[in-house]
UniProtKB/TrEMBL annotation:
Keywords: DNA damage, DNA repair, Endonuclease, Exonuclease, Hydrolase, Magnesium, Membrane, Metal-binding, Nuclease, Transmembrane, Transmembrane helix
The protein's name in its UniProt record: Metal-dependent hydrolase, endonuclease/exonuclease/phosphatase family
GO biological process terms on file: DNA repair
Organism: Pricia antarctica
Bilayer-crossing regions: 33-55, 61-83, 95-113
Cofactor dependency: Mn(2+); Mg(2+)
Length: 365
């Protein structure tokens, strides 16, 4: 029989294995510094996992982490590899937070080995922030207007949702029989456009208070039913790279500006979520969220809807580059009445955003 002292010895060994002093014992000074940095980035990613569930009013600076999740994941993965190649258990904190983050936040990289095709009988929707067709000369390219029109004609989506539509955009821009283009003459509003091959039976602009951004919806007759499609352009952070704002303003000013934008995004998302839940129709939603899938805003807008990239996308899903960091801030979503059939990201640089397209099929109950 084992002696009582044996259990005591084993207990001390177990206790020592998990003790803080034993955990860093034997590490060089350099590795101790590396491990301290490692724990900081583990903590940041762990906190980022809570951001979608916290109001911006609660510690507003935490909202910045929603933009940094891909970077935090990459850094923690590098830390994990660093310790794993040395065979050290210091790899465990990063491994834990990576696995935990995957289940809480989901993934931003999709591996899809089944071939996704856009079939003729499915409903194809394209969403694209066109940045006013370069009306204000943000880029040297002069062929933006025709290039975007050519893309639409080549891809033949059934419905096109544009954000940041030029005030001079004509209904005849695309060869679509139905459209919703409401010009707002006051308030410096950024305009939206919806073009459809199917009849639009009703449409409305949803004005966001104290903002140049807004949303809209169109009720569309489709396959003997009515489908409501929301097209949204959420509050911009107002610090677009290349505009000089980052260089010309103090960090304190930029902080207040971005925090205020996060708060407006949350208010606008709550407004859209309430409107969508009251919809009597099957619902789709697309647009420029100006934030990532790791934000409170995305969490509110998505609700119980399906994200087409998560369901059928492949790769990274980049739709915007912020300070050379690729982000996914443009989305297409559908409620449970639809089956997501395909999703496509484009490497089509005729705006500061990249277009996305997805296809859907109505479920037969």
């Amino acid at each position: 029989m084992p002696r009582k002292s044996d259990f005591g010895l084993e207990g001390r060994r177990t206790s020592n294995f998990f003790s803080k002093s034993n955990y860093v014992k034997g590490l060089s000074v350099f590795n101790k510094i590396v491990y301290a940095l490692n724990l900081i980035f583990v903590s940041l990613l762990l906190i980022a996992c809570a951001v979608p569930y916290l109001s911006v009013d609660f510690l507003p600076f935490l909202s910045f982490l929603s933009l940094a999740v891909p970077v935090l994941v990459a850094i923690n993965f590098l830390f994990f590899l660093y310790w794993a190649f040395q065979g050290k258990r210091q790899m465990l904190p990063s491994l834990f937070v990576l696995v935990f983050g995957y289940f809480v936040l989901g993934t931003f990289v999709k591996f899809n080995f089944s071939k996704q095709e856009f079939l003729k009988d499915d409903l194809k929707i394209m969403s694209y922030n066109i940045r006013s067709f370069n009306e204000f000369g943000w880029a040297e390219r002069k062929e933006v207007f025709n290039a975007i029109r050519d893309l639409v004609e080549e891809e033949q989506p059934d419905i096109v949702c544009f954000q940041e539509v030029s005030i001079g955009m004509k209904k005849q821009f695309l060869d679509y029989p139905y459209h919703y283009l409401k010009k707002i003459p006051t308030g410096d509003k950024v305009h939206l456009g919806i073009f459809s091959k199917y009849p639009i039976v009703n449409a409305e602009t949803l004005t966001f208070p104290n903002s140049i951004n807004n949303g809209s919806y169109a009720d569309i007759a489709y396959q003997g039913d009515t489908v409501r499609l929301y097209n949204v352009h959420m509050q911009s952070l107002g610090i677009t790279p290349g505009t000089g704002v980052l260089r010309s303003r103090s960090s304190k000013f930029l902080y207040r500006k971005v925090v205020n934008a996060f708060k407006r995004q949350e208010q606008q998302a709550e407004m859209m979520a309430r409107h969508r839940k009251a919809s009597p129709y099957k619902t789709l939603l697309c647009g420029d969220f100006n934030n990532t899938q790791f934000s409170k805003e995305y969490h509110l807008l998505k609700g119980d809807m399906q994200d087409s990239f998560i369901e059928a996308g492949v790769g990274y899903g980049r739709t915007f580059n912020f300070l050379k960091i690729p982000l996914r801030i443009d989305f297409i979503m559908a409620d449970s009445s639809f089956e997501v059939k395909a999703h496509k990201n484009y490497n089509f640089k005729y705006s500061d955003h990249y277009p996305v397209m997805a296809s859907f099929r109505l479920k037969k109950w």
